[in-house]
Amino acid sequence: MIAWQSVPFLYADTFSQKVEDYLLVYNPLSERGITVLNKEAYFLFNLVDGKRTVGQIFEEAKKVDSNVDFDQIKKIFFDFEEAEIVYFDKPKIKKTNLFKKPKKLEVWFHITNQCNLRCTYCYVWKTAEKMNFELAKKSIKKIIDDAKKTALKKFFLNLLAEKVF
């Protein structure tokens, strides 16, 4: 349970990259994938140093937004912990996870970037680029063939293409 005196820690191998107003966070020891943080969550994530308590981080957030309440901050840190980008007390995952065979594989395959939506949370640049059909077909076949060779329990292939209205 996250409390005022709880101290959040970052996983040592976590990678983060700022993209526009968002922060992409990836923990290679986790199977959770990439977590996309909005600017509020990004602000809180940047305050995690293994020394400050959640209460102290809340006080910093209160200086920026006087309407924020402690339950909101606790919820965000709960989400961070669920995404396996921070931990409290001791890490839930260890480096030994790197040497285990993955149980699942999820592939996001962009056939085109021509989406006409402009979702504020989307990290994909909108361009006129398209993948040619033969390359797409060969790539998908290769991904599926390689997935069959491993002992995966779950395999997800997400095909993304333009939305036309």
Structure notes:
It is built from four helices and seven strands. By secondary structure, it is an alpha+beta fold. The protein folds into two domains: 8-94, Outer Surface Protein A, domain 3 (Alpha-Beta Complex), CATH 3.90.930; 101-160, no CATH class. It has a three-stranded antiparallel beta sheet with strand order 2-3-4. A two-stranded antiparallel ribbon has the order 1-5.
Keywords:
single chain; alpha+beta; Outer Surface Protein A, domain 3; 4 helices
In short:
With 165 residues, the protein is of the alpha+beta class. Helices cover 30% and strands 21% of the residues.
Helix content: 25-40%
For the secondary structure, the number of strands is 7
Overall geometric form:
flat
CATH architecture of the largest domain: Alpha-Beta Complex
Number of domains: 2
CATH class membership of the largest domain? Alpha Beta
What share of the residues does DSSP label as strand, in percent?
Answer: 15-25%
Element order: H for helix, E for strand: EEEEHHHEEHE
Main sheet specs: 3 strands, antiparallel
Radius of gyration: 19 Å
**Biggest sheet, strands in spatial order?**
2-3-4
Mean pLDDT: 84
User: What ranges have pLDDT less than 50 throughout 5 or more consecutive residues?
Assistant: none
**CATH topology-level name of the largest domain:** Outer Surface Protein A, domain 3
Q: Number of DSSP helices? A: 4
* Derived structural class: alpha+beta
| Ends distance | 46 Å
